[in-house]
Design a protein that fits this description.
It is built from 5 helices and 4 strands; from the N terminus they run αααβαββαβ. The protein is α+β, with helices and mostly antiparallel strands. The protein has a 4-stranded antiparallel beta sheet with strand order 2-3-1-4.
Amino acid sequence: MRKYIYDTLDSELISELRRDGRATISHLAETLKVSRATIQNRLDRLISSGAIIGFTIRVHEALDQKTVKALMMIEISGHSTSQVIKKLRGIPELVRLHTTNGAWDLIAEINTPTLGEFDEVLRKVREIDGILNSETSLLLSSF
């Protein structure tokens, strides 16, 4: 990630994009009370600096019932957290990564269309240097 000093406007822009990744530049400018050019410049810088690594969609749960979902708790060795996170972010089926306290260093949310692809994701994660241990739980129902 390139060196870039983030400010309140960057945080607000990212927050708005998390709410609606399809928001138009005009809508974002109006919501954040800045010009369209400012939004476009900030968005370009956030993307080129690596702060924004991609855009995604969230599917309504009724359409997402056949997806295999899981949480993977990950233990990392020594001071390799940033290297491990960088490698994990390259696995598209890991839809979110969270740092945490306690016995586990990271929690990864996994979504795959099939159990076979889920198994492949587990293999990829476990092959990453710096990962000492992991425990994965399939999500069966959501309320």
